[in-house]
Amino acid sequence: MEIERDLVSPDAENDELQIEAALRPKRLGEFIGQGRVREQLSLVLESALRRRRPPDHVLMSGSPGLGKTTLAMIVAAELNAPLRITSGPALERAGDLAAILSTLAEGEVLFIDEIHRMARPAEEMLYLAMEDFRVDIIVGKGPGATAIPLDISPFTLVGATTRAGLLPAPLRDRFGFTAHMDFYEVSELEQVLYRSAKLLRVTLPDEGAHEIARRSRGTPRIANRLLRRVRDFADMRADGLINQEIASAALNLYEVDANGLDRLDRAVLGALLKKFGGGPVGLSTLAVAVGEEAETVEVVAEPFLVRQGLLARTPRGRVATAAAWSHLGMTPPPDAFGAPLLD
Ligand SMILES: Nc1ncnc2c1ncn2[C@@H]1O[C@H](COP(=O)(O)OP(=O)(O)OP(=O)(O)O)[C@@H](O)[C@H]1O
Ligand SMILES: [Mg+2]
Could you tell me which residues belong to the region Small ATPAse domain (RuvB-S) (predicted)? Predict the structure, then answer.
């Protein structure tokens, strides 16, 4: 894919991970936005600390770049507990998970990223571990195989997923608390930007912060990335001054549109309108039309388009709203989804 598309892609790129780590809030008090999640989580953590017991297992669900990993690390920090990090794809066999579970310290926080991508046998082992702090080690094969129960230290599982819908119900039910992370408001992204600008020693006037925030696709990761690109542009062209005009010019150069829609977002909308007359069209057909995996369209592009009121998911397929037609400079048909009804 083109470099420009990567600029607003919510996924972190390799060289970005280090900067991300540096910009990551370390404590709950520093974490911006997600007010409800923060309040619920602080209650869960505080009461666990008071009872001197590991808190319930926590599931973080939400689009890429909204702060799931950040929050998982904060859970361990607030509990003053050690943190072990792994991910669903790394847990291919039950033995991979058993090796981790059996060496957890009491109260340790185990973070499993992309938990929806765990292999089935590991998943089943996790059920028992979460519920009874026990694993069954299977010895032997076939009819002679026996399960040897092994107690493990009480721990707290923190799972993260961009696709909560894919988690099997028995797994989902074993989390005592699910944090549903939503896209951030512009004002919250401004706070993220001010904080990052300070850490990066960038002077960021309000108008520049506002312009970047409203084009950041509701996503802190993208806000931080755009801040660095705009800073580079301002350094080269405007002696470092990030006013509205400079921010806007920089973002135009990088093809981030006025609402933060990226290339994939625009490609999806464009195909929906131009190739399928606004829909309804099935997800896989739409994905083929833009040359992407269905999962990418569903996880990366759609949630934001839905949130912006540009796309609707209906039982018959994906549908463009009247606002989507206007957004791409086209006249919506009279029966467009969400168009004002004429009498
Ligand atoms: N609430 C927040 N306040 C300040 N910065 C934040 C916040 N949430 C996220 N960030 C910043 O955004 C970056 C991305 O966040 P994070 O890695 O936690 O996202 P994620 O949800 O785990 O994404 P992915 O699904 O790709 O794993 C972090 O490095 C952090 O700097
Ligand atoms: Mg993450």
Answer: 185-255
pLDDT over 90 (residue 145)? no
24-53 per-position pLDDT tens digit: 999 999 999 999 999 999 999 999 999 999
125 and 233 share one domain: no
Domain that holds residue 156: 34-180
List pLDDT tens digits, range 238-273. Answer: 888 999 999 999 998 887 888 888 889 999 999 999
Cα–Cα distances (Å) from 307 to 120, 142, 242, 248, 283, in that order, read 32, 51, 28, 23, 17
Question: How many A from CA of 291 to the centre of ligand 2?
Answer: 25
Cβ of 162 closer than 6 Å to ligand 1, yes or no, is yes
303-305-307 Cα angle (round to 5): 65
Asked about 331 being catalytic, the answer comes back as no
Say which amino acid occupies 104.
L
Q: Check if the beta carbon of residue 122 is closer than 8 Å to that of residue 93.
A: yes
What is the domain-level CATH number for residue 280?
A: 1.10.10.10
113 in active site:
yes
Do residue 232 and residue 141 come from a single domain?
no
Predicted ipTM? 0.98
Beta carbons of 95 and 195 less than 8 angstroms apart: no
237 and 158 inside one domain: no
Q: Quick check: 188 pLDDT over 80?
A: yes
Residues with CB under 5 A from ligand 2 (ion): 68-69
Query: Does residue 156 have its Cβ closer than 6 Å to ligand 1?
Result: no
Closest ligand to Cα 71: 1
How far apart, in Å, do the first and last CA atoms of the chain sit?
A: 46
Please, are residues 31 and 195 in contact by the beta-carbon 8 Å criterion? no
109 and 215 in a common domain: no
Q: pTM of the full predicted structure?
A: 0.89
